[in-house]
Design a protein that fits this description.
Blueprint: H1 2-8, H2 14-28, H3 31-48, H4 51-68, H5 80-99
């Protein structure tokens, strides 16, 4: 009913505004724009978080992916959780080296 109320008084919902803004941005920018803002966001995240942050998101991602997988046989491959943990550790080492 809230959407009907908003349409009746010519106001846009937050969802509608966000969707329209995203569509306009997509029309005005190319792939390189999104690559650049993604890179900047990743660099900012790396500056603001430590090894434990990356380990935790890696662990959560690995657990979520494992739940999605119908096949629990890894054929001797590294688990996704382990890959996430190792990725977090590698990123933390890279950040440490960058700061030195």
């Amino acid at each position: 009913m809230a959407k009907d109320d908003n349409k009746n008084n010519n106001k846009m919902t937050v969802e509608e505004a966000g969707r329209k803004g995203g569509e306009a941005t997509a029309k005005n920018h190319d792939r390189e724009f999104y690559e650049e803002i993604g890179k900047k966001g990743g660099e900012a995240t790396a500056r603001n978080h430590d090894k434990e942050f990356y380990e935790e998101i890696g662990k959560k991602g690995g657990e979520a992916r494992a739940r999605q997988s119908d096949n629990n046989d890894n054929d001797g491959k590294m688990s996704q959780e382990e890959a996430g943990r190792k990725g977090g550790e590698a990123r933390a080492r890279q950040r440490k080296n960058d700061q030195e």
